[in-house]
């Protein structure tokens, strides 16, 4: 891993109280951290709380940051990952929109409704399968598949070895495939019952 | 994180996982993660001056923010031994000695109290009462 940290100049400036440097760091990293926190918690408010806390810790850490030990972005991801775990342990937050509850009744009459519904069900099946995973497996999927981090980067963010991450990913994929197949089979069964 | 080439190869080798990866990609596209709101951004930026104050007050030390409450006890005790504090204590102590001992003695020495007045003061004091009690016994 290259130890040339693209954030280092801004961290030095932030340590001296430079608000512009803080702003640049927040803008540079907030989208990715929000994405991780949102996928993990499923709620915007919870994700914002987590990201806010991560950046506040960044402010405190800047003055005593040891250059060359790790990339600042890796550290920031690790803080976010741990805050997500804390949050999930405190309260099992779920995606705000439960399956189908918020779909308007008249949608079925619209021409593209079937396609939309199918897409939504497919998305929900993925999300529900994701939500059913244990937190570390879920984090591995979120970092590698939703946020496109490499295995190396995800392992560093989770503070585990690459081998451990690959093991988590393999188990997570297996569980998700199984859950999604089950959900599809149940949907087919329901559709058959409705047709009869 | 780094912009280097993504090193995941597992899903490239497994058709079933390619399907799963595609489903996840669709889900990600259908439900993009929200961005940090302006309000949250403002709350974060409000922490900047406090962070710089912490960096100024405690260079190389713990990252405790002023008034944050963390490690307050230890900081307070350690603060007692910082030079300005013990110097103030020492000055206050010397001032107390001067006020409590030297000044009253000097005042008495220079006073114009007559022996009769001194005896009258003695009679009103607890010493005189104790002496009378002893004599009664």
UniProtKB/TrEMBL annotation, chain A:
Pfam families: Sigma70_r2 (PF04542), Sigma70_r4_2 (PF08281). The keyword Cell membrane does not apply. Residues 125-176 form the RNA polymerase sigma factor 70 region 4 type domain. Keywords: DNA-binding, Sigma factor, Transcription, Transcription regulation. CDD domains: Sigma70_r4 (cd06171). Residues 25-92 form the RNA polymerase sigma-70 region domain. InterPro entries: RNA_pol_sigma-70-like, RNA_pol_sigma-70_dom, RNA_pol_sigma70_r2, RNA_pol_sigma70_r4_t2, RNA_pol_sigma_r2, RNA_pol_sigma_r3/r4-like, WH-like_DNA-bd_sf. GO terms for biological process: DNA-templated transcription initiation. One of its GO terms (molecular function) is sigma factor activity. Gene3D superfamilies: 1.10.1740.10, Winged helix-like DNA-binding domain superfamily/Winged helix DNA-binding domain (1.10.10.10). Belongs to the sigma-70 factor family. ECF subfamily. PANTHER family: RNA POLYMERASE ECF-TYPE SIGMA FACTO (PTHR43133), RNA POLYMERASE SIGMA FACTOR HI_1459-RELATED (PTHR43133:SF8). This is RNA polymerase sigma factor. It comes from Aquisalinus luteolus.
């Amino acid at each position: 891993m290259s130890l040339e940290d693209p954030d280092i100049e801004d961290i030095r400036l932030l340590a001296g109280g430079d608000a512009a440097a803080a702003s640049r760091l927040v803008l540079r990293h907030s989208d990715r951290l929000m994405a991780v926190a949102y996928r993990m918690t499923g709620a915007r408010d919870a994700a914002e709380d987590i990201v806010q806390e991560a950046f506040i810790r960044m402010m405190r850490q800047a003055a005593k940051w040891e250059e060359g030990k790790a990339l600042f972005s890796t550290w920031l991801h690790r803080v976010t990952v741990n805050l997500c775990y804390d949050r999930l342990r405190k309260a099992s937050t779920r995606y705000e929109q439960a399956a189908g509850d918020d779909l308007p009744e008249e949608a079925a009459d619209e021409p593209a409704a079937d396609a939309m519904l199918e897409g939504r069900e497919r998305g929900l099946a993925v999300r529900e399968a994701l939500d059913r995973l244990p937190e570390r497996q879920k984090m591995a999927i979120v970092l590698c598949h939703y946020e496109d981090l490499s295995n190396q980067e995800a392992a560093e963010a989770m503070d585990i070895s690459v081998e451990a991450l690959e093991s988590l990913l393999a188990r997570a994929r297996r569980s998700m495939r199984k859950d999604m197949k089950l959900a599809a089979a149940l949907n087919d069964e329901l559709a058959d019952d409705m047709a009869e | 994180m780094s912009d280097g080439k993504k090193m995941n190869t597992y899903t490239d080798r497994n058709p079933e996982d390619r399907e799963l990866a595609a489903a996840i990609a669709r889900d990600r596209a259908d439900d993009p993660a929200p961005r940090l709101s302006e309000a949250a951004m403002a709350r974060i930026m409000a922490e900047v001056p406090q962070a710089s104050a912490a960096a100024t007050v405690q260079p190389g030390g713990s990252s405790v923010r002023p008034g944050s409450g963390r490690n307050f006890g230890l900081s307070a005790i350690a603060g007692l031994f910082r030079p300005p504090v013990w110097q103030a204590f020492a000055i206050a102590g010397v001032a107390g000695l001067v006020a409590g001992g030297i000044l009253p003695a000097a005042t008495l020495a220079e006073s114009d109290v007559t022996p009769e007045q001194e005896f009258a003061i003695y009679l009103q004091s607890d010493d005189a009462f104790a002496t009378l009690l002893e004599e009664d016994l």
